[in-house]
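Re: the request from the purification team.
They wanted to know what the chain is likely to look like in 3D before they choose a buffer screen. I agreed to run a prediction and write the result into the notebook, where they can find it.
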Amino acid sequence: MIIKYKNNGLGLCRVEHNGVEVEFNYEYVKNRWTLTESSAVRASHIGIWNRLEDTLNGSTEYLEDEQQEAKEKKYDIYFKDVSKLDEVDVYQVHSLFNVIDASGCLHHASKKILLPGVRTGGKERYKDIEEARDTLNRWLEINK
């Protein structure tokens, strides 16, 4: 749960939860910000009622959760589920990350970068990185 917008004057907040933005209305009752009845039902339904009310009232208990959710959402594109695989090779990495390149330059360069100096060609690390750079330069020429 991340509070995207909050306005005490309007009694309105917008929350992002599991990638969906939802608006809630709240009011000041008995020295505490409380969700209106319809918003409380909605918040309860998606499982954030207590967290939301506590946060509206200044609690920082869930701040770490909010920051972690934001971080996970921000960087989740870098992670692929490989739990059904026993092992992954360079070619499967290309497939998992949808590296599509008819010229083959991107595949060739990434293979050299992922395994510099350790493949069967016997080339040194520096030479593999240099060849990866040259291949990427060629890709740039082809795709101008």
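For the purification team: The radius of gyration is 25 Å.
Please add any questions underneath this entry.
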